Amino acid sequence: MSDFRYVRYAVEDGIATLLWNRPEARNAMLPEMNDEAGEALKLAAADPAVRALVLSGVGDAFSAGADLKLMGRGDRLGRTAIVGRERGKHGIERTQQLLDFPKPTIAAVHGPVAGMACAWALACDIVVASVDAKFHFSFVKVGFVTDCGTSWLLVRRVGVGMAKRIVLTADPVSGQDALGVGLCDELVEQGNDVEQATAIARKIAAQPPLAIANARRILEYASRVGFADAAEMEAWTQGALGETEDHKEAVRAFGEKRSPRFTGA
Questions:
Q1: Which three-class secondary structure string do you get for 111-167?
Q2: DSSP codes, 154-207
Q3: Which of 87, 132, 190, 246 is the most exposed place for a label (fewest CB within 10 A)?
Q4: What CA–CA distance (Å, rounded) separates 206 from 176?
Q5: Is 14 helix (H, G, I), strand (E, B) or coil?
Q6: At 251, is the pLDDT very low, low, confident or very high (cuts 50, 70, 90)?
Q7: How far apart are CA 180 and CA 182, in angstroms?
Q8: How many CA atoms lie less than 13 Å away from 6 in the CB half-sphere?
Q9: Cα-based distances in Å from 91 to 70, 118, 140, 150, 240
Q10: Cα–Cα distances in Å, from 241 out to 49, 208, 230, 244, 247?
Q11: Which is higher by pLDDT, 258 or 184?
């Protein structure tokens, strides 16, 4: 386990686990947490042993969002627009880091998932929610709008109409309702979100690493471009993967009726 103060990071059996670690404050976000999480993501991205990443929080909350006590400090309240923009960009960098992460990411959410923490969850490839999860897009309640790219992520997940309803009313979204509108991909019993997310990560980690990384990259690319560009990317990538040892091993193993042994080559 790496030595961080506000996050826990560990790797086991090809799965990196990144946990917010400020349970006494329901994992409310500090700038230092954001920075440490960024460093942990860099470690996971560069580690060839890591095949997938699970993101969650220690204790009974994924994250209560930005720490409002910190927001109310004299040096924060009434800040200039320029300073506010710079602070916002600090959060955006981390969302972008998750979107560009080269390996599959799974958010395991429980309890409050609030404010900027929503961006972290929705930037993951798969979201597993516990029945006690509650999404809070309550930015307008403190006189703000969505941040950290949440507007783009939310519209992509639930569509424009539902995104407007969620943000403009600031009504919390329960785990059950989140499943219905597409905020999460799977709903599990309370306390089982990390376990289920890890099980999914293990299933992914057993697949050919190059195929998984490229399949994830193509799907992310396809969500932002038109059909012709997505199909062209598929064709070129498929051609390149056909030359890999993992592809050859998969075909041989199928013919020989045995389990394949993937090396990422």
A1: CEEECHHHHHHHCCCEEEEECCCEEECCHHHHCCCCCCCHHHHHHHHHCHHHHHHHH
A2: HHHHH-HHHHHHHHHH---EEHHHHHHHTS-SEEE-TT-HHHHHHHHHHHHHTS
A3: 190
A4: 30
A5: coil
A6: confident
A7: 6
A8: 16
A9: 15, 12, 18, 10, 35
A10: 20, 10, 16, 5, 7
A11: 184
Contacts of 38 (CB under 8 A, 6+ apart): 93, 94, 97
Walk me through the domains of the chain, giving residue ranges and CATH numbers: 7-205 (3.90.226.10), 209-256 (1.10.12.10)
pLDDT greater at residue 83 or residue 88: 83
Q: Which secondary structure element, helix H or strand E, spans residue 7, and what is its range?
A: strand 7-12
Is residue 145 a contact partner of residue 139, using CB atoms and an 8 Å limit?
A: yes
Task: Choose among 123, 124, 126, 129: nearest CA to 147.
Answer: 123
CB 184 within 8 A of CB 138: no
Question: Mean pLDDT over residues 15-38, rounded?
Answer: 94
3-class DSSP state of 79: coil
pLDDT at 250: 87
53's enclosing H/E stretch is: strand 52-57
Radius of gyration of the chain (CA): 19
Which residues make Cβ contacts (< 8 Å) with residue 246, sequence separation at least 6?
Answer: 208, 209, 210, 211, 260, 262, 263, 264, 265
Nearest 5°: phi and psi at 82? -65, -45
Which SS3 state, helix, strand or coil, does residue 47 take? coil
- Within 10 Å of residue 75's Cβ, how many Cβ atoms? 8
Residue 72 is predicted with a pLDDT of 56
Q: What is the mean pLDDT of residues 177-183?
A: 97
